[in-house]
Structure of D-sedoheptulose-7-phosphate isomerase:
Amino acid sequence: MQNYETEILNIFEKSIKIIHKSKSLTKDINSIVNMIIKTIENKNKIIIFGNGGSAADAQHMAAEFVGRYLIERKSLPAIALTTDTSALTGIGNDYGFEQIFARQCDALVDDGDLVIAISTSGKSPNIVEGIKTCKKKKAKIVVLTGKNGNKLKRFSDIILQVPSNETPRIQEAHRTIIHIICEFVEKHFLNKKTDYKRRSKKI
């Protein structure tokens, strides 16, 4: 039997180190929380997309808004553009993979919406094209990326660059950031008449 304990501990340490260094993003995370609150209060919606693991993060974030994170409250308007396989495969087939988000954004994004694009590299052509389309639609743009995601900076209102080049470590930090954002948005929209009912996950 192989013993990976030393390597496992090393990975834990690396992950902890990157998440700790990501505390430097606190001011921008706070700004994103307030942007989301303002967007929803203005009767607009949150649109989220990404590829691979970042697609899963997009769906996770949207689910926490539409469902709930920790506290019972009203549903919040968020859509992940990574869930409709008919749209994704149809657009990919007819227009190319680069257009799978741009085409959906052209149809669904309105002036005043907030778009959250998640990309560990910041270089994916379909992410870039999606953001460009959203910018034309006068949406606000937030990007979650890694250390080398500078390509998306000029298209973004706020860009969070996790200080790492390693995809797994960036993704782990992104998930922590997403949970932080969800927690404070949820607290803002909490119905004051509702007790703090912590959910007990059955999964």
Remarks:
- The first strand starts at residue 46 and ends at 50.
- The radius of gyration is 17 Å.
